[in-house]
Amino acid sequence: MHKKFLLAALEQARIGQGHCAPNPCVGAVAVQNGTIIAQASHRCAGTPHAEQLLLTQIPPKMPGVSLYISLEPCNHWGRTPPCVDAIINHGVEEVVFAYLDPNPVVAKNNSSEKLRAHGIKVTHYPVDEITEFYKSYSYWTVTKRPRVTVKIAQTLNGKIGRSVGERVILSNTLCEEFTHQMRAAADVILTTAKTVSLDNPKMNVRLGQEKQAKPVAIIDRQLSLDQQSIIFSTAAHCHVYHCNEREVSYPNSTLHFMPMKNGVMDLDAVISHLGGLGYHDVWVEAGGTLFSALHQERLVHRTYLYIVPSILEHDAISAYQQSGIFDRTHTISWHAMGDNMIACLDWQED
Ligand SMILES: NC(=O)c1ccc[n+]([C@@H]2O[C@H](COP(=O)([O-])OP(=O)(O)OC[C@H]3O[C@@H](n4cnc5c(N)ncnc54)[C@H](OP(=O)(O)O)[C@@H]3O)[C@@H](O)[C@H]2O)c1
């Protein structure tokens, strides 16, 4: 029963995915007599936590109510009051949570002990799906760096786009939909000025009727972006990374000066800066040059290769611009997407 209700809490947590950073996404359900009577999710940093929203839906001191929460409830003041105090004051009888918060402030104050001191039954019940869900939050909390996921669509001969001429759409609609789901779940999308100038992409989320603007980070070493690029109006905000002293402004953007390393922008510094902005999950959509460089520098945690049954001409742009970029321990899984295939490579941490 614990697993069933914690997975229901996870479904609630997923609603906030891509909106809550630097906070974790949290979902919660209230159960009475084996039935879910209320559910809530944390929607955005600075707004009430899932537990607080849940408690507003149940009368105080209601008998036999258990709260199932995806993450250990918080016990400190941030922008909102501690959830542990709200649970105690509401007269809840039982709390079951799945994931121990790695935030040292929460760990120090021991939520379970506080709740138990007020006669509340507390169970920590780990669930694999929820542990996986908090991977990025956990990694960011410990390292202050985001997890990086890179996608590239390639032909059977490893090409990703034509070197000149029109933009080519390689992957099928199932892969496209997957891309939009991944964009939605990420905190920020990373691309390059080269891809922006060649493709003029929107880099927003378009799923059915839903349209959602995301923060977008753009590597633009020389500040060469065209101010008319559509991305400035389709992104929630743009973070433009550059190495140029020139005074330039772009619409809806913040410029960040980055150091150079071996004649190119220091990508490690960019990723670290994105972590400093509070992003836990970076989704990368760019060409083969950035794809190869990120792998070469071992900055990627997960790679999605969309494999498309077509061939582009020999001089088309390659996904693999350096040798040995995949020489690193990894696991791989394959997912059929109609007539395309997605290979998911999870790189082992060094
Ligand atoms: N198939 C797909 O999934 C997919 C996705 C997106 C885009 N594309 C296609 O990709 C093509 C562009 O690919 P591309 O490989 O030419 O360009 P890209 O990877 O998008 O961007 C290349 C730029 O990134 C910067 N860069 C390169 N190496 C770097 C490094 N080590 N460190 C930091 N910055 C570095 C460089 O900027 P500076 O020269 O200013 O240093 C370089 O011009 C487009 O045609 C687009 O359609 C395909």
TrEMBL record:
Cofactor details (free text): Binds 1 zinc ion.
Gene3D superfamilies: Cytidine Deaminase, domain 2, Dihydrofolate Reductase, subunit A
Binding annotation for NADP(+): 153, 195, 199, 287-293
Documented EC number(s): 3.5.4.26, 1.1.1.193
Domain of life the protein comes from: Bacteria
Residue sites binding Zn(2+) per the record: 49, 74, 83
InterPro entries the UniProt entry points to: APOBEC/CMP_deaminase_Zn-bd, CMP_dCMP_dom, Cytidine_deaminase-like, DHFR-like_dom_sf, Eubact_RibD, RibDG_C, Riboflavin_Biosynth_HTPR
Family, as annotated: In the N-terminal section; belongs to the cytidine and deoxycytidylate deaminase family.
NCBIfam families documented for this protein: eubact_ribD
Protein name: Riboflavin biosynthesis protein RibD
Gene for this chain: ribD
